[in-house]
Fold these 4 entries.
Entry 1:
Amino acid sequence: MSRLKTYRKHLTVLVVLLLIGYYFCLPELLFDDPYATILNDREGQLLSARIAQDGQWRFPEIDGVPEKYKKALLNFEDQYFYQHPGVNPLSIGRAIKQNVKAGRVVSGGSTLSMQLIRLHRKGKGRTVFEKLIEMVLATRLELKYSKSEVLALYASHAPFGGNTVGLSAATWRYFSRPPDELSWAEAALLAVLPNQPSLLYPGRKNIQLLEKRNRLLLKLYQNGEIDGSDLELALEEPLPDKPSPLPQIADHYLQFQRKGGKDGQVINTNIDAKLHRNVRDIIERHQSLYALDGIHNAAAIVLDVETGTPLAYVGNSQSGKEHGESVDIVQAPRSTGSLLKPILYSALLNEGSILPNTLIEDVPTFYKGFAPQNFNRQFDGVVHAKDAIARSLNIPAVNMLQQFGYPKFHGLLRELGLSTLNQPADHYGLSLILGGAEGSLWDMSQVYRDMALHLKKGIPEYPLDKASVWFAFEAMQEVYRPNEDASWEMYSSNQPIAWKTGTSFGFRDGWAIGVTGDYVVGVWVGNADGEGRPNLTGIQTAAPIMLEIFDLLPNQNWFRAPRQEMILAAVDRQSGYLASPYSNEVDSLLIPKKGLRTSPSPFHKRVHIDQSGQYLVDGACYDMNAMRAENRFVLPAKLAYYFKKKNPTYQEIPPSLPGCDHHLVVQNSMDMIYPNQNASLYVPVEQDGERGRLVFEAIHRENNAKIHWHLDNEYLGVTYNDHVMEINPSTGQHKLVIVDANGNELIRTFSVISQD
């Protein structure tokens, strides 16, 4: 009795151990193979693919198999798939009988579940022991997975010849379409291929392969799966010659997604394949023309404002390996040129520092180690802020950044998502607004997309209010057509677009980014290696591409004005400031509510003129009853000097009546163009090695004025009309004094730094 209990106990332990072993005999993950990376468009169609790390075209596992393939596969491999528990005793018995009769192994009697286990075990030797292992594991497989899951796993990992693994890879390589679009003939072919993939490889053993496929088609007909017409059509279909290359329509976007952590995955995107192809065609057509000027690369992106996802992503033109066509320019850091100017304009509006028409200085400007120039090398004296954005003037932009503060602007750009600003603000300084920093086409397009989305729907805690974005976009709608571009009209779009171009220093990068209520289109043109070319400007190269892409897009919505953030205010027409008591022309305009923080116009003065209208007077030297009081638009001398060249109707205030001391004239009669106050200067060394001379320049409100020059109490000479003086000062601190004929005096201190 004791022995029986011991035996039962041992037997129980053995059974428990066997059950535990059986339970854990199948690993949690059947396959840990590397997969290809698959990029699909918005319709689920394949755009691009990258082969798996082991050199196999193995697509990620599928969730299910199409009906045609399932019927073909089960009729060929396992008719009783839904009846057996992983092992079919009848099939095993029939296989044993056939093998004994043939004297060799001609049939294995394996079910699909057993074949899946064989794939999992990486082709172990075909021995009786291995077959027993497969049978055990197959039953365990059926307990863990549903029948549909087993089918999907098999279809995902079955070999289809060469380095093609899995149904999805096979359908694309052999038929250039997804599995759910297979014909009966194609489904039958793929059902028989895994049976002997090395022998039955399309393009090699076509006769045997065709016979095997057709036998399966006949079986499908006999079993009632297809009718006579299906059979007739299927039998007429030819076999594929050889595997076809997989699509590589958006390979740069695939590369970007892989770097983002999606390697070996199926990536479903919002890419519109038709739009993407059309954008690519536009890029190629324009780039082929630009190549004649030595410009070899171009990239474009179309973003959906609602989602921020790309509808088209052309990372580079097909310009050849020698021109870096593999470089994804959309993600490459490049000098931003003028793309940041509307953001700065919006930031100034947002903090209530300016109004849309506020006058900004546009005169020769010198900062420490930095002298910005407008593209046309001209000066307007002053220009309305929104016009400075529309015309992309550099000097007003630098002056606006000086007003806003480049450290604060640097922080704002980082907050808005400019990831390439990896240096502190002082590294860029005021050049930040003129392309002194780098940005990618992706980042810049996303920044403008966020501005559009905020204006459209609102983004919580966004650093710019809607009104400031609205006025920025309004300024960007004012298309500036440069005189030298006689063919510009052909580029004009028939829909409202807020857009900005940019050109980097040295003509290395041409940019154009446009925004509507629905889309953002960003374009970059240049050379991947950074080589500059004379005609490489944003307005000449990138803008035509951008506008042509917009013409591909459906009718788009424009933005609603955020009236809740605006207010109707009295604005001086000439200066763009809030109206002052001395304004001559006042407009009632919508401005950002924060604009009420700005000051009234500082350029309007009440002046008193004698009866002849030729002189300024005051009560100390002229009969008050004979004086005329007038409100005048008066610019400081330096600004007026350049302003009146572009605005001949500008009226200077007249000189003071001889004998009258008018303080306005004393304060504003002249100014210094160069140098700035407290400037640090180098004296140039000429080609012959001799010490050169500094050229100082002043301006006077009166055309025929005479100016006397003094340096450190030493008289230098006198100038008339054009007030330019060459000076050769020594190293150290200096004091320059200029005096006009009326005794008005201007003082500049500066230092000369030793060349040593």
Entry 2:
Amino acid sequence: MTATLRGSNVEKLGGQVFDVLIVGGGINGAVAAASLAGRGVKVALIEREDFASGVSSASSNLAWGGIKYLESHEYLLVNKLCKSRNRLMDAYPSTVKEIRFFATIQRGFRFPPFFVFLGSVLYWIMGRFRTGAPRYHSANAIEAAEPVVNTSNAAGGLEYSDCYLYDNDARFVFNFIRKSLNYGCIAANYVESLGARREQDLWITSARDVVSGEVFEIRSRAMVNACGPYADAHNHSAGEETRYHHLFSKGVHLIVDRVTDNKRVLTFFASDGRLFFLIPMGPKTCIGTTDTQVDSPAVEVTDEDRDFLLDNVNALLDLDRPFTRADIIAERVGVRPLATRAVEAEADWVKLSRKHVIEVDERTKHLSIFGGKLTDCLNVGDEVAQWMDRLGIPVPEPGNRWYGEPDRKLREEFKLQARLMDLDGLTDPSSSEPLSERFWRRYGESAFGLLERIREDHSRVELLIENAEYTRCEIELAAHREMIVKLEDFMRRRSKIEQVIRREDIARAPGLREACEILFGEEAGQRLREYLESR
């Protein structure tokens, strides 16, 4: 089932001329594909690994307006990010949700607590009052509201609002890929670009199907380099020279058991002065992040990273017992690609902005996307489409709304059908949210098909993996429409199962084998062995 969708797309990649080829299936490539395909452009997208397998599955899961950039006086950037965050809130009300941030300021910090609070008021104003108003807290008030916070050295604090992704970042990215497929984009994961050349008016990209090993060529009138941290390397292979380049900052997050039942982000300044978060992740808490300059996008979590995060959380919280490495359930690591015009030896990477830059070679119709944040993704999609129009690529449907959840009437119809069949009554009452809410947020209009499957057979609402909050019918849907090539694709990116359940518990789950059989059919045993051995 999965092979049919991906396999047919791989076959189509070499058989036609596309208006645009996008290389890279992270957030920048995904929104570029959805924006262009949604406007009627003939688009192809290839990703050498799985969609969102790099930086886009290692973020803090926040869609925020960049309050920390106020300190560096980047007011225009904060204003733009706040507008982008509000746009995401409007477009994805089930996914991009407001959440309170509870910040504690220690004595001796570079700014007094009330001054930081005034900054949060400015931030709220720049956010057009779309979120709850900030509040100032004394140290005693912090302890009363969040007893887990260590206030022995606290000078005060504040509470303000921003947004986070209710599911996970990789799922959010994939839904843009899925949107682009609905509009006719030919996208395929595990297809690697081996380099590209410009011949007459076409880009000829040599590509390799990582699964079969087959090498073929993809022809396109324009190209978008959305390779994230690997953008410089791909430009080099395509003979493109750019003014902008990337520097890399490694970010690490650790997942541990839930620290507090209060559903808000605990915010501190770590021992090195950077913002440090404890972010709700369902039944768990995500701790991070680090900010370490590295020379390569190929990174891993080190013991030094683990100890830095654990030492800080142990110092900042009043825990019954300190966290140790044994408490780590899962880890997330990636690099932030930071756009800079300077050569590496001259750039001050700490001061580099997280803004995105699109550099265009109009002569060759080549776009390179540098930097960026998840919050700003819709702007990236719009800008890519605008550039294609300027470059003479036909954009037949320029006004089509290419992003967002289905309209409210369709959601109300889904809710009505789910209520009349008592969908939520069929599920475990201890679940973190009603099943109807979860289905709609993850699948939009495709959730109607899930209702139909459950009407046929109530067993399809069963959870195959305990505590995973993924039903049998969802796994069937993933097998059909989500290009699952490896079990990791589903466990870590289409879902966040691997992020909240220990590996040994996953391996022992009675339903894991059945989930593999649904996803891979006759190849289930092989895919399961590969997954378990890789871990």
Entry 3:
Amino acid sequence: MELELLTKNRQRRVALLSISMLQDTLEQEMLLVVYDITARKEAEEQLRFSSRVFNQAHEGIIITDIHGIITDVNPAFCEITGYRREEVIGKGPHILNSGRHSPDFFNRMWTAITEHGYWQGEVWNRRKNGELYAELLTISALTDDDGQSRHFVGLFSDITQTKQQQETLELMAHYDVLTKLPNRVLFADRFTQAVAHSKRTETLLAICFLDLDNFKPVNDTYGHEVGDQLLIEVAMRLRANVRDEDTISRFGGDEFAILFRDIDSQDECEFLLRRIHESLSQPYSVNDLRLEISASSGVTFYPNDNADLDTLLRHADQTMYQAKMSGRNTYKLFNPAHNRQTMEKQQWQQQIRQALNDEQFCLFYQPKLNMRSGEVFGMEALIRWQHPERGLLAPSQFLPLIADTEIEIEMGQWVLKQSLSQLEAWHHAGYKIEVSVNIATSHLQSTHFIDDVEIALAQHPQLDSRYLQLEVVETSALGDIAAISKVIKLCRDVLGVSVALDDFGTGYSSLTHLRHLTASTIKIDQSFVRDMLDDPQDYTIVDGVSGLAEAFNRQVIAEGVETVEHGLMLLMIGCDHAQGYGIARPMAADKVPDWLNHYQAEPEWINCAARPLTARQQALYLFELTSQRWYQQFVAAMNQSDEQPESWPIIDQRKCHCGSWIQRVKTQGLFDALWLDRLEQAHAAWHQTAIKIREMCMTGQAAKSRQYLNEMVSRFEAMQAIINSAQSPLKQVVSGPRQEDNNPEKDRAID
């Protein structure tokens, strides 16, 4: 009989008690044998504990032999992987392979296990149902007493949820939630890497700033949900049209940035940009809506534009704005030289604003005259800047710097108020003249323009508003002729202010303007008037505009009258009103009364206007004016030995004024055909001599060319004799070029 007994001592120990019965003939004896089995019982308990740990652990456990064959797995393994124990015993761990790790990954893993006896890291595996999961895995090598590996134990936990949370946080930190594109933070990181790569490979990288055109109306009309879907579609198109190495980022709203890496040339980048713009401009279908938008973008290149990321983005943004201003749905490339000009322009704008606050500006006034009557009926207000260091500056030196800015509107308001104050002062002094004020396009199209004019007039209640004329540049109506027309009508009908179309003829739709814009006055641009004596095409334009103004019952005034001959030609055309240096230069306001008191009308203009001329007489008059002008210019160029072709008058006898005149009157039936033939022959002979002289001057033989001057004079006189034979009302002695007291060329540009 055997019994297990628990001994009573300081430690609980287990003993196996064996009792044997011995019997002999004489007496009976009992043999008691005791064995200590404590160690065995502890080992059994340890095995039971290890079994509980193995089976109840929440981490998956996988045991393989040295060949990688699975010998055991715990229940947590089965719960995590979806495999039953009997499905994996005898197989390799490769049944869990997700395919997301390269062979090099596993080679490095087993190298670490071999060298260090363990490896720990994150692994993506695949469950039985095909679902991927992430695990934190520790692999340890189990060795025997001799240090030889006998088994490998893998202990892992499912960290898929943790990884997903990390990815979500990373997405929020580095990606735009809506489009899933990189945000500014990740874009900056990619840029840093790209710069390092650019320096190593000596290639360009480009920063593109892109803004959607007409996105706001879509958002406002259809709501943010449609707008968001449209942005997602835009992001998809951007991804489809850039390379894998490029980075697209959404900066917020409808603004995107693109980082182009490994650019060999600007042409390569422009190819990508054209492809992007073409794709983005195609129609979109969102919630059964057909939407059409486009994009404008600006691009700068590193290291050509050697700056940090913020500066590069600012340069690209500025250039994108230029693309929008040029018509949208296009791109512009950043020009460092142009950027310097922009910075200088901004500095000038600050100076101009300060100068406006410091009252450094003043107004000059140029008279407007009725040449037929000699009456001065108005003044045009022209701004000047009395610069403390550079002296008196003309408007051409500072007005272009503030075009389309708030400063331009503020300056326009100042000019309007100053002009009305001066006009009222002249009226009180007895000078009943009008004042015309130039209105910038941005001011005219501002929402408060009518209010500005009304408030300015209200400050002078005694002043009749019809004495104020607003001069609107014709090209300002190109943007929205309906809106401009409405403003002009309000000025005329509500405020009683007249409006003039300035620089007429320089726009693209003058007939449309005459039809729809109810301006009372048409001002012919000075570039046409100034050259009408020399270029028959400019004469035709001036004549045509004057005729159109008469047909539409508009008053016409010619700018750029610099000589008596300009005025005479205009009077024959039928244009009586004029202004220009031939009448008076712009003058300070305090000089105007004295000039008005001493002005005397030009006698030749008064006489010409007083003489009724037939169509035949007007034609002869025009021939004499233009031929004498041509002769004076030719002699001036010859005396200067000028080798510049542009300084000579038109040398082609068919294209000069006289040649055009001959061809024109042939169709009018004003002159006898034989007489015209004689005049045409004399004109051709005159030009032949002129061509000979000009060629000699152009080849450095000016002194030798003078031997032909008498021949030229003789032929000119012969031509004039033919004109005189037709009883021209104008007989003048031929002389050299008229010596002008002033030099219109010198001051022409300031107005």
Entry 4:
Amino acid sequence: MTLLRMKFLIIFWTLSFIAYGDAGDKQRKLYLSADKQVWKSDSNQYKRLYQQLNDYPLQPYLDQKRLMHNITLAKSSEILKFLDKYQGSPLERPLRKKWLKYLAKRNRQTLFIESYKPVANVAMTCYYYRYKLNKGALEKDILPKVTSLWLVGKSQPKVCDPLFKKWQQAGYRTESIIWRRIKLAAIGGKHTLIPYLTKLLPKSQQYLASLWHKVRRDPAYITRLKRFRNKSAAEAEIFSYGIKRLIWRNPKSALKVYDKAVSVFTFTEQQQQLITQKFALALASKHHKDAQKWLHKVEARLLDDGLIQWRIADALRSQDWSAIIAELDSLPKANQSKLLWRYWYGRSLIETGNKEAGQSLLTEVATQRHYYGFLASSYLGIPFNLQDQPLEFTKQEKTQVFSHAAAKRAFEFFYLGRYTQARKEWNYWLTHLNDKQKLIAAKVANEAQWYDRAIFTLSKVGYLNDVNLRFPLAFDDEIIRHSDKNKINPAWAFAIARRESSFMPDAHSAVGAKGLMQIMPGTAKHLIRRSVSKKYLLNARNNIKLGTKYLRKLLDRNNGNRVLATASYNAGPYRVKSWLKNIPSIPADMWIETIPYKETRDYVKSVLAYQQIYQVRVGQSGSLFDELVTMDIVN
């Protein structure tokens, strides 16, 4: 047994004792055995196992599984009693959903209505409204609620069709409602729904729906303005939707057609401003020569953080400090309190000779535990400030908060490695706690080495100053060992894992990255010359081994430059290489501000700040930002 595992068991056994007595490993083994046999709940062996688990927190899950297996009407009384007892908890929804489906299949309308509560299932909601109407509910009380079921950008289950027919016959499916659904389908929904919706419109309006469909499928369709035959307000809306997509795909084409469109369409002021915003953002992120012009076309009241970032970044590229000051001065006063603005304004003042004012401003920024705070402290040559304010609670406070049944279930699932169920119970538990109790829960989670719950809960409450809880030395044996093996700074590996997953071993991303350090299956295959399974990547030890090895490769590929290696870990090495083409030598802090992708730009800032914190945590002296403020990025 590893030292890490022993530490975990000692802590968890302590928590287990607090929660429900010293159940220990024996009851967990009994539960796992009973869980496998719950489908044979009438057997003597299962009954013996079940009786030995009377005080065990997860015993209700055996009841839930037993009730869900081979549902019958004979179980209705027991099912309703269970659902009432665990209403709102993660134990309720799976059973209620299956029970409702069973009743709907058998057309048991009265019992369905009695059993119904929302279960995030449109089909069950449609059955409920249909059955209510069948049992005499007034249409005026039910049908207005149906509008929200129909008004979505995708197809709905066929069981809803009879309900939608009544709703339509009652006059709720107006032309305005149809148009709203077409737009939902076009803008982010399923565009394949549009042909069906088109047929619901009057003949004179159907060409507009077809236009929506074609522009959704290919925004370049707007480049031939003669396709917009009437240049009406409705056509202007479709064009403005398309041009805001086209500017990202083909700036040259979008700029050319928009220059013509403004003379033939009558755009509303809002449409013009939204188009301007999209043009400014897209062109700036692509380093387009017209970016500055479009950035300054956006009205001050409509400037968001992204546009302000690019106005500053575009000025920084010139490295003309007087021009940078002028740009910063032109931004709305409301933005001048932000660390981004204050750091660069302080730097600009110093560079233009106003040293005292600039240093005063940077000194204020340096008090913050933040990327810009660390930059400012290194630039001034003063110590950085972690603002560490540890949370302390008594054993009695922890015991009191931990006494909730959901807490016990959450930690048991966590110990068993059933992280999804553990998080559901955790989230349910938090709904019963005030902010102080949530902080206690975060402390308990950290002590049990359930690091991601501690991190997320602190963030949710808004308490950010317990540095050790927010930046734990999670999986330290493995991270330090593999970092040493790959000759990288373990603080960097800790920072990457913290930013990627908050130390959640089973983390999944939308693009397919998995595990603690969010490794893509293709990256893993490249690193170890063979395909690996999902299970392999979700093993924390394997994931750390691959992640640290990949960091070493990226560091070598970028000539030891940790900034570029960090950007490559997020955006990919080929993309970072493309960003470096045709750029002059530029200070590293300026280059970071000009990274085209917001996600990568924020990622690099976060990882650098996190690494600084982790260098303190692992006992390293000095500031890595001392190197950053003197570093240049060169092609």
